[in-house]
Specification:
The complex is a heterodimer of chains A (297) and B (281). By secondary structure, chain A is mostly helical. Helices cover 74% and strands 0% of the residues of chain A. Chain A has a domain of 200 residues: MetI-like fold, CATH 1.10.3720. Chain B has a two-stranded antiparallel sheet with strand order 1-2. Chain B has 281 residues and is an all-alpha fold. The chains are: A mainly alpha (297), B mainly alpha (281).
Chain lengths: 297, 281
């Protein structure tokens, strides 16, 4: 995993390897090329369809060729979506995502630091570490009924906090795994010299580990954020009233209501994906390394 | 310092996991009192003909989505490992499906495949104008397609990263020996990717156990029960039929299956490859 991130940086570091990939250069890879361009079509055609259709009027949609751009583009669909409280759902999603990602990354970072620093001498922390590793295998779906029970008992049913707390819990295992691998890469001598200078563990955490692992913190934050922003099951089970809805759930109810109005439904889809697409354009490398962090070797 | 993380994790992940086992020995309608029920819930779970059906559907989704995704991701990953500029551009576009929520993807395909208002009707193509989600076989095919559409990019990224780490000297040596592209793929690339294939397959197989959002929005398990996978079965038994004890039993089966499959694939891979991940995908 650290290798993924490093591979990412190496590539940015000047593109010097760009031309070096002459593997089997004598003959082009026809099969790969065909698959590549075909898959491009498969990916792009639905997305193109979403974008152009969302600007068509409903009557125009039924009359024109589905792949032709709108003859008279309209923002009517977007108006309808926004009038259906999508601003509120957007704010809810933002609250849930930020409210879960920031604490999740923070506590995971602290835990990862403690686990790495205490590597050999404290049995307790080794045990905590293996507990988190085991946690990687707990599927949210399988735990949802007791989570529902706990949320009811805490009188948190139908609040955004009900979505936030389990989201944090289920983000922790992978976050700790990725972050502890990063803290492990910090040279031991740096920690030793901090200790010689009389710095406490907290100040070592803040002034040494934090600045050095900042890229990893962003990566982990993006990864957690993507999954929480797109989360569907927790809001479905743990909330009920429309004003606690997050975007994926709102999309689903919106389709239930306006299913026939395809352009409006597609406008709602596009609108909810917009923040992530914007993030992708701005921070592609961070996002990609975030997506594969912990998986590639 | 590990304490805050530990507390949240135990409260909302470990306790629920233990809790689901305990709840499977109770009877609870989701609102009222929870009563101990011994093995009654388990008896109804295990004798319900819905269970073998859900297991079968889950297995079909798992096997087919693996069989479709693995060769394609492998091929695309090897292709995208090239550093040519246009391939990097393709890689940028390929990732987009991965960024969308399963709900958004399901809603899009539901609209796109609608026999009256979808793409087929608009293009007047009878081949595309089928009752995609109304026919058991077609609905299953649609699910496999949409799952692949969403997750092939992810596995392609994994393979791309792994292919780039294969030492170039191996290919150079093979080229000197006069090996062709196909020969190099089977003699170098594939063996070198062994652990990546196992990691990727583990993620696919174990991840497919918990497909919920996509199938829930796309077909809700229908038509009939044709696409009612285990996770969806659990949801319907628990939150629609209000039989939380039985639903907990199904959840326990899910956990056991997931762990069992992860361990099995790990053994096949000779162990040591990265930890299994159910969460997230």
């Amino acid at each position: 995993m650290a290798t993924t991130l490093r591979a990412g940086t190496r590539e940015t570091a000047g593109g010097r390897r760009r031309r070096s990939h002459g593997r089997g250069a004598r003959r082009p890879n026809w099969l790969g090329g065909a698959a590549g361009w075909l898959w491009l079509l498969i990916v792009i055609v639905p997305i193109y369809w979403i974008v152009i259709t969302s600007f068509k009027t409903q009557s125009n949609y039924f009359l024109t060729n589905p792949f032709a751009p709108p003859t008279e583009p309209t923002l009517e669909n977007y108006r309808l979506v926004i009038e259906n409280d999508f601003i509120r759902y957007f704010v809810n999603s933002a609250i849930v995502t930020l409210g879960a990602v920031v604490p999740a990354v923070l506590v995971s970072f602290m835990a990862a630091y403690a686990i790495v620093r205490a590597a050999d001498d404290r049995r307790m922390l080794r045990w905590v570490n293996s507990l988190f590793l085991m946690g990687l295998a707990i599927p949210l779906q399988a735990a949802i009924i007791p989570v529902y029970l706990i949320v009811i008992r805490l009188h948190m049913y139908d609040t955004l906090a009900a979505i936030i707390l389990p989201s944090i819990a289920f983000a922790i295992p992978l976050s700790v795994l990725v972050l502890s691998n990063f803290i492990r890469d910090v040279p031991k001598e740096l920690f030793d010299s901090m200790r010689v200078d009389g710095a406490s563990e907290w100040s070592t955490l803040r002034h040494l580990a934090f600045p050095l692992t900042r890229p990893a913190l962003v990566t982990v934050g993006i990864y957690d954020g993507l999954f929480i922003w797109n989360g569907f099951l927790l809001p479905l089970i743990l909330t009920q009233s429309p004003n606690q809805r997050t975007l994926p759930l709102a999309l689903w109810t919106f389709q239930g209501q306006y299913g026939v109005n395809v352009p409006a439904v597609l406008a709602s889809v596009l609108l909810t994906a917009l923040p992530i697409l914007a993030l992708y354009v701005l921070g592609r490398r961070q996002l990609l390394s975030g997506l594969t962090a912990g998986f590639s070797r | 310092m590990a304490l805050p993380a530990l507390l949240v994790f135990v409260a909302f992940a470990v306790v629920p996991l233990v809790g689901v086992l305990l709840l499977s020995f109770t009877s609870w309608d989701g609102i009222g009192v929870i009563r101990p029920a011994g093995f009654a819930s388990w008896r109804s779970v295990l004798t319900d003909p819905g269970l073998p059906h859900a297991l079968w559907v889950t297995f079909v989704v798992m096997a087919l989505s693996w069989a479709v995704q693995t060769p394609l991701s492998l091929l695309l990953g090897v292709f995208l490992a090239g550093h040519q500029r246009y391939r990097e551009f393709l890689a940028v576009l390929f990732v987009i499906p991965l960024l969308l929520s399963s709900a958004a993807i399901a809603i899009t395909y539901k609209a796109l495949l609608d026999p009256n208002f979808g793409l087929g009707a608009g293009l007047h193509l009878p081949l595309l104008t089928q009752d995609w989600l109304g026919e058991p076989t077609l609905a299953m095919a649609v699910i496999i397609f949409v799952v692949s559409w969403q997750y092939i990019p992810f596995h392609t990224l994994i393979y791309q990263g792994a292919v780039r780490q294969i030492p170039r000297s191996m290919y150079e040596a093979a080229m000197l020996d006069g090996a062709g592209r196909v020969r190099m793929f089977f003699s170098i690339t594939l063996p070198q990717l062994k652990y990546t294939i196992i990691t990727s397959s583990t993620l696919m197989v174990v991840g497919s156990l918990v497909f919920f959002d996509l199938i829930f929005v796309l077909t809700e398990g229908g038509p009939g029960d044709a696409t009612r996978v285990l996770a969806l079965d659990m949801y319907k038994v628990g939150f629609q039929a209000n039989l939380m004890g039985q639903a907990s039993g199904i959840a326990v089966i899910l956990v056991v299956l997931g762990l069992g499959l992860a361990l099995l694939l790990r053994r096949i891979g000779g162990g040591g490859s990265s930890a299994s991940q159910l969460e997230g995908l």
